[in-house]
Amino acid sequence: MTADTPHPLDPLSAIEIKQVVSIVQKARGDDDTHYIFSSVSLLEPPKDQVLAYLGWNTPSSSSSISNTIEREAKVVLLDRLSSKIHELVVSLTKGAITRWDHPMVKGQPGLHMDEMDEAQHHIRVSQRVIDECAKLGISDMSMVYADTWTVSRHKTKNNMRLSQVLLYLRTSKNDNMYAHPLDFYPIYDFNSCKVIDIEYAQPPDSEHTVRDVPMMNRQYLPEQIGAKNLRQDIKPIHITQPDGVSFKFTGRDLNWQKWGIQIGFNYREGLVLYNIRYKDGNDTRPLIYRLSLAEMVVPYGHPSKIFNRKMALDVGEFNVGAMTNSLQMNCDCVGSIHYLDAVVCDMHGVPRTIANAICVHEEDVGILQKHTDPRGHGSYSTRSRRLVISQIITAANYDYGMYYYFYQDGTIQYEIKATGELNTHALSKDESPHPYGTQISPQLNGQHHQHHFCMRIDPMVDGTANSVAQVDLVPSDLPTGHPGNDFGNGFYLTTTIFDDTDSAKTMADASKGRTWKIINEAKLNPYSHEPVGYTLVSPHTPPLLPKPDSLVAQRATFATKTLWVTPYVDDQLYPAGFYCIQSHEPMGLPVWTKENQSVRNKDVVLYFTFGLNHVVRVEDFPIMPVESCGFTLRPNGFFAGNPAIDVPPINYLEKASCHIG
User: What is the DSSP letter of 83?
Assistant: First the structure.
């Protein structure tokens, strides 16, 4: 790996993006100004080639040899005049376009940040919007702000690239605009850059035909609250590592204690982790080929017109990577921090660097293991630490912290911390928000909704031939008093290994303590004599509450099941499809699994959905305290014992340890 020969999974650099854009612009012609670069990103090489490069597989006869993997980019262009999509593959190795398609899909590419910024301007100068604001007593359009939500599906105008615009008012600079929602909804066409319609949400059971703007200010910034009103009894906590960190980078490949991880990034998923492995004695064992947040959906529960279209697929519709924050020392991350920048492009193809997009650091997380021997052999205690790889995104009102945790005992955890602002709408003075929301301030409603996150887990537990088992903890079916269950206390595990994609579409079941286990049936633990494996577990698996035939269930079918397992295919990455804006037909997982396929002892991919039911509280406003969800991958029969037994107690060598003999 050098600057001239990047790792095959490294994201495109700014220089590479410029090269790709130059090649495309030359092919298109300098006078063509009607198209935008929706995305420019790495086209990941075929998996078999990368595995050979990493040394996990020997290349097949049809594969390129490991040191000549072609460096390619995938480019999506959108012609605004015709709404035609251009999908190109550009070879940086050859300096040429090698594929140019026009996909015939009933959907749209994800929104570009520039398109949303551009929309803000055009909405403010739209005479139709100005006239509606005047009816509400608003004359200063610079204080009107737009959240450009995708329209999901429009019954009459769905052939356009549309936004259902949610408008808010600021009463002063840096005012919390979500305290002042406007009760009319422009429909904006991103291609023509025009407001093409205005829609209204008629207040039910109210004598009012238009809702007034809620005008109570609800601030949260410290300068607005006032220094004298802030808590005065908080003392500083300093987190220091005087000898430096315990991890090191080679390029973007990270090594921390026994862990090895390749850190990637793209405009759509943001953080992507590759080639996750763990050093077990003298052997380095592969665990996961690729791990990413592949999609999410936030369905709102209000069934009336306007609000029934609120179902943001933030990964595919808004591009999580492009919404990534530049992180700040001692605010977003604390301690000895290593930052990685990220590079995306604007809609003209110009690279844009997100400084400090990814934070890497270590944290103390309490006790790792402890035992006190009451028979005179003393006490033993070891502190635990974890490696944290994180990013934070802002998706309109919501902020999401996304954290990968790696522990010393071989455990992997993923956590999402949801915070930011509630998406609000106005109430009439005589209107109740019930049963679909909570009044959080005078004439201000916070609608109940859900957050469903879909993780794509591409395992290689001791190799790429893996199986997935469902594990339930159940009481014995023998009655109390039976010779096999005399006291009635018997319970045990039942394990079902999925043979095919149909049986692998499963739901969480807390009543059975349900977990799933990724196993390698060809390799047995020396003591349990069972396949080596990793258990997948989460306490955050709410079912999708909209009806099975609802619009959101059609567009985000992945959320109708907790787990899907599919055979690996190189270009199957996004469970709701690649072009999921205004999607008209099933895409992604329901298409990939329409035909029943074998998933036992195969190269498989898991799509795991977890999340939150957000029943809005008054305490969620004016800014929402963090609410967390996630999942854990825990070794189960993978090792021959506790792999963290060699972690020394703190200051063991200085004889001031937590080990008292």
Answer: T
